[in-house]
Design brief:
The structure holds 2 protein chains of 2 kinds. Chain A is an alpha/beta fold. Chain A has helices at 29-44, 46-60, 70-76, 95-108, 122-133, 144-149, 151-159, 174-187, 205-213, 215-228, 243-249, 278-281, 319-327, 337-351, 357-369, 391-405, and strands spanning 15-16, 19-23, 66-68, 80-85, 113-118, 137-143, 163-167, 192-194, 234-239, 259-267, 283-287, 289-294, 331-336, 378-383. Chain B is an alpha/beta fold. The chains are: A alpha/beta, B alpha/beta. Chain A binds chain B through residues 13, 21-31, 33, 169-170, 175, 179, 182-183, 186-190, 283-289, 294, 296, 298-302, and chain B through 53-61, 65, 72, 77-79, 102-109, 129-132, 134-135, 152-159, 162, 166, 177, 180-182, 185. Chain A: The beta subunit is responsible for the synthesis of L-tryptophan from indole and L-serine.
Chain lengths: 406, 270
């Protein structure tokens, strides 16, 4: 097979094709350059790799199982479906993979204070967790809308010793939390490490977060080889910023036989304008340190995203996804709030697994796609998080639809 | 000579620093903002920075964030900001005017079209917060080729190794952000500013303006003794935020501008 080398990006300037880069205020530039150097050094350091592997195994609980979802497969009546069980990780989602990596780097750089933004709260919880484990101060920025709909996670972060700062600006969601974290960072440059939760932001974050999340795809490769003796035929993952998807996809990018599908949140439907599908409903622009597809109006003002899932509620997407979309290597589709909710319920009943609403978007795509495929088609779905945090949201929706029926 | 060069040369001749004022275009409305803009030169502003509103002003503190929200709420956009500059230029051909903001609205407007329209409207320079020298090719280079100055921010974190990279391609003046932080935050000590100016002078002949955290005529005067320009933004904008009528907003901003101008003008005499 010819090597297509889709896994070598980004270039020295942090560009994946036309996407990525370092669009930040000058105050942050020296820090970001420093971070890139430190990360490059750490990546090659056997001691760092060994420490990372230790924490992934004994603290996070890796490898996460690759589980043959027999009942889901029977229900769909087509492709053989495997679930990559990232929801079984410590803290209940894939977010911890990246947090462990970055906290080890922060410690290596001598930083004493960790800041992060969070949407659904899973990244905030994972960050608070590793900060507690390493005895570092932790401040989490979270939009007030998200605080409202994710109270259990807010409480978890507080239990773990983090300070949760509500962000009122904008619509009080992930984008606004990220603005506020960036403001904190420019103010506390010397002491503070900004632990970004997704494959976005200025270089080196998109590449670094991807590398830490790639453990998902690497394990999947080995596990499926053990169970089926071959590569998967397709991969499916949900996308907000896109870190769980990039973690699963990246190790397979050069395997042309593997079809790769990213699922964006279509909210009420892309045609309504109330969605979070940056690739399917946005255009390229520059925000939060990188050039990527953004939801914006014709004056370049950022439009607030909408999704039932707080973790997908972001008007941008990681630059590597923007590039993979541009070159057509990954197919990006979208599913609505209602489709995700339906998949959520089916997964609970068929597999006894309560998925996060984010992951339910990937499952919704599976319900559309799997029935049309042959039985020997191997499909791997990233079950990126568990749904405990979403009880309130789902309950609220069930009550609402009950009322609508009366 | 560009309008910025001429202005800084004149002031050097007079042995005084420039008062550089920042307001956000369209805050709180197009008409009030235009009245403020037109009144600033007579109130003593030597250089005008006009903010281009953006939904996500990541490097700005609460005062300018709210100014952006008010302006966008009043339907300000980049085309209207350029229109505002054209209307300002009808009555003023001397005061340099610099547009300041974030890259995305310019990116959406289209860089070549923006440069042409800004130049034609009478804009003298640009400050784009989220375009470091690593991205010079996107806007800085073509803007300068078209005769627009590109003013760089330098900060306490810009060390001697990085400074030449930042200054290379800077023109008009150098804007020293005296504290690491967002706009409107606490002020730097005079010792820090003095040291920073001395360090910058070793690397550049461009005029040096100091900003962030300067609110009163007294503070402006003490900075004016050390640097070529004093930038005030959030303190002026607070007068717009606190006004209950458009006239109050206009009077508030212009009165503070006049007081700051007096501080700057007297600074090196006493």
């Amino acid at each position: 097979m010819t090597q297509t080398n889709l896994r070598n990006g980004p270039d020295a300037n942090g560009l994946f094709g036309a996407f990525g880069g370092r669009y930040v205020a000058e105050t942050l530039m020296p820090l970001i350059l420093d971070l890139a150097r430190e990360y490059e050094a750490a990546k090659e350091d056997p001691a760092f790799k060994e420490e990372l592997a230790y924490f992934q195994r004994d603290y996070v609980g890796r490898p996460s199982p690759l589980y043959y979802a027999e009942r889901l497969t029977e229900f769909c009546g087509g492709a053989k479906i495997y679930l990559k069980r990232e929801e079984l990780n410590h803290t209940g989602a894939h977010k911890i993979n990246n947090c462990i990596g970055q906290i080890l780097l922060a410690r290596r750089m001598g930083k004493k204070r960790i800041i992060a933004e969070t949407g659904a709260g899973m990244h905030g919880v994972a960050t608070a967790t590793v900060a507690a484990r390493f005895g570092l101060d932790c401040v989490i920025y979270m939009g007030t809308t998200d605080i409202e709909r994710q109270q259990a996670n807010v409480f978890r972060m507080k239990l773990l010793g983090a300070e949760v700062i509500p962000v009122v600006a904008g619509t009080g969601t992930l984008k606004d939390a990220m603005n506020e974290a960036l403001r904190d960072w420019v103010t506390n440059v010397d002491s503070t490490f900004y632990l970004i939760g997704t494959v976005a932001g200025p270089h080196p974050y998109p590449a670094m977060v991807r590398d830490f999340q790639s453990v998902i795809g690497k394990e999947t490769r080995t596990q499926l080889q053990d169970q089926e003796g071959r590569l998967p035929d397709s991969l499916v993952a949900c996308i907000g910023g896109g870190s769980n998807a990039m973690g699963l996809f990246h190790p397979f990018l050069d395997d042309k036989s593997v079809e790769i599908i990213g699922v964006e949140a279509a909210g009420y439907g892309i045609e309504t304008g109330k969605h979070a599908a940056s690739l399917n409903g946005g255009v390229p622009g520059v925000l939060h340190g990188n050039r990527t597809f953004l939801l914006q109006d014709d004056d370049g003002q950022i439009i607030d995203a909408h999704s039932i899932s707080a973790g997908l509620d972001y008007p941008g997407i990681g630059p590597e996804h923007a590039w993979l979309h541009d070159i057509g290597r990954v197919q990006y589709t979208s599913v609505t709030d209602d489709e995700a909710l339906d998949a959520f319920h089916k997964c609970c009943r068929l597999e006894g697994i309560i998925p996060a609403l984010e992951s339910a978007h990937a499952l919704a795509e599976v319900f559309k796609r799997a029935p049309t495929l042959p039985k020997d088609h191997l499909m791997v779905v990233n079950l990126s998080g568990r749904g405990d945090k979403d009880m309130q949201t789902v309950m609220h929706h069930m009550e609402q639809s009950k009322q609508e029926k009366h | 000579m560009s309008r910025l060069q001429t202005r800084f040369a004149e002031l050097k001749e007079q042995n005084r620093a420039a008062l550089v004022t920042f307001v956000t275009a369209g805050d709180p409305s197009y008409d009030t903002s235009l009245a403020i803009l037109k009144g600033l030169p007579a109130a003593g502003a030597d250089v005008i920075e006009l903010g281009m509103p953006f939904t996500d002003p990541m490097a700005d503190g609460p005062a300018i964030q709210l100014a952006n929200i008010r302006a966008l709420g009043a339907k300000q956009n980049l085309a209207k900001t350029l229109q505002m500059v054209r209307e300002f230029r009808e009555g003023n051909s001397e005061t340099p005017l610099v547009l300041m903001g974030y890259f995305n609205p310019i990116h959406m407007y289209g860089v070549p079209r923006f440069i042409a329209d800004a130049k034609a409207a009478g804009v003298d320079g640009l400050i784009v917060v989220d375009l470091p020298p690593e991205h010079n090719g996107e806007l800085c280079d073509p803007a300068q080729a078209a005769g627009l100055d590109f003013i760089r921010l330098t900060t306490p974190t810009t060390d001697d190794v990085r400074l030449p990279t930042v200054l290379n391609g800077s023109s008009g003046f150098v804007y020293y952000v005296s504290v690491a932080g967002v706009t409107g935050a606490g002020a730097a000590t005079l010792e820090h500013v003095e040291e920073a100016v001395a360090r910058l002078r070793r690397h550049t002949d461009l005029p040096i303006s100091i900003g962030f955290g300067i609110r009163t005529p007294e503070q402006a005067a003490s900075i004016a003794r050390l640097a070529d320009g004093v930038v005030v933004g959030s303190a002026l904008i607070d007068h717009i935020a606190n006004a209950s009528t458009p006239d109050q907003a206009i009077d508030g901003v212009l009165s503070l501008c006049a007081a700051l101008a007096e501080g700057v003008r007297k600074a090196r005499v006493s």
